[in-house]
Design brief:
265 residues, alpha/beta, Rossmann fold, 2 domains, five-stranded parallel β-sheet, three-stranded antiparallel β-sheet, 9 helices, 19% strand, binds zinc ion
Length: 265
């Protein structure tokens, strides 16, 4: 990925230039000189328009803020595009999640809270582990969390563990490694790793999972698994991974009548 500092400079320049000549239908009727900005020493002006609105221009701080926001938007898009989400999970939200059991209602509440307070979770590196059998809607909630946090322009990468492993293997055979998946998964503000332990893992897969979980220490990760805690003690290696996954992690157990069968019976 590009060095963010390198790519932000032209954006700031653009924003400065654009703030001088805003293509707009409204006409300026009065310009007030506000003097120098104490922070950047740029000249600030307040322009009043014929529709009664006002706009402050000329200060570099404001332009930088806009450029930063633009950069966050671009980064968020790269991570969205790098995610592997199947079918309509891309658009799954909390609104279309049907919480029937107490544990599903609790899981929904925890998920919403996570999205609404992500900024503070990010500071604390708070993780969630959704644990439950197939059909309890774990992936649905994880997908809704992805959407809610990606919409706030955070870098969110969503992928199942088997897809992640496939990508790692694939990259071994590729010469062009512009966005190596390990780097993206390590760098994400939030990594959502779906279906941990879905298949019996080979030695290679276990070691790749450990490398990833280790790289995510202190960062925000949401895991979903149908493994029980006991399943994670099957081998020393898995146990080691599980211990690390459990650092600063809220475990959300989910039970329910088969979620995906609902409406089909
Ligand atoms: Zn300023």
């Amino acid at each position: 990925m590009k060095n963010p500092k390198e790519s932000i400079a032209p954006l700031i320049q653009n924003a400065v230039e654009n703030s001088e000549v805003q293509p707009t239908l409204k006409k300026p009727v009065h310009t007030e000189h506000l003097g120098q900005c104490v922070a950047c020493r740029g000249n600030m002006r307040l322009i009043q328009f014929d529709d009664g609105s006002e706009k402050q221009v000329g200060c570099r701080c404001e332009a930088k803020k806009m450029a930063n926001e633009k950069q966050r938007e671009i980064n968020a898009r790269v991570f969205s595009q790098g995610s592997i989400i199947y079918g309509d999970y891309k658009t799954k939200s909390f609104e279309d999640y049907s919480a029937e059991t107490d544990s599903q209602q609790h899981a929904l509440k925890v998920s919403k809270h996570y999205v609404n307070h992500f900024e503070s979770h990010l500071k604390n590196g708070q993780n969630i582990l959704f644990q439950g059998t197939y059909g309890t809607g774990k992936t649905h909630l994880a997908a809704a969390i992805r959407k809610g946090i990606a919409d706030q322009n955070y870098k969110v990468l969503f992928m199942s563990l088997p897809d992640y492993i496939d990508r790692v293997k694939q990259e071994f055979n590729e010469s062009n490694k512009r966005h190596p998946i390990y780097k993206m998964a390590s760098d994400a503000d939030l990594l959502i790793l779906d279906d941990v332990g879905a298949n019996r893992m080979t030695e290679f897969e276990v070691s790749e999972l450990f490398r990833l979980v280790d790289a995510r220490r202190g960062k925000c990760t949401v895991y979903t698994t149908n493994y029980t805690s006991k399943d994670f003690t099957k081998s020393m290696e898995l146990h080691r991974i599980f211990s690390r996954m459990m650092e600063n992690t809220k475990v959300v157990m989910m039970t329910g009548s088969d979620y995906r069968m609902k409406g089909l019976m």
